[in-house]
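Thread: quick sanity check before group meeting

JM: Hey all, I'm pulling together slides for Thursday and realized we never actually wrote out the predicted structure for the chain we discussed last week. Dropping the sequence here so it's in one place. If anyone has concerns about the input, flag it before I start.
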Amino acid sequence: MNNSLQFDFNVPIARLKHIRPKKEKEELQGEPRLRQSLILAYQVDQLIADGRAKDFSQAAQWLNITKARLSQIMSLINLAPAIQEEILLTDSLKLRKISVQQILPITAESDWNRQIYLWKAL
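JM (edit): ok, ran it. Output follows.
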């Protein structure tokens, strides 16, 4: 007794010509996501400092993100100035591939030299 199934079907090749490979989301956006997040962190910080937002909760609500997500984004301000400068001013492929989640352990490090070492290791 043979328990295998076989399916035969035809695929029109002409229709396959128009299929384009999917581009990653990051390739479609102008600015790297990490840069956008760092800029957002400074903007939210300024809103709170100016008193236009009373706290992170209000800012998170305005941005339609969770307080936890905003906290992750705000942690980017704790990065060493050299790392922030690289994020803001360079346009490398490395920068486009790094997510906020990948950099969170670096933001938790208080020693800027150690942060730079960890950043270069990414």
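AS: nice. The longest helix spans residues 33-49. Residues 32-121 form one domain.
JM: adding both to the slides.
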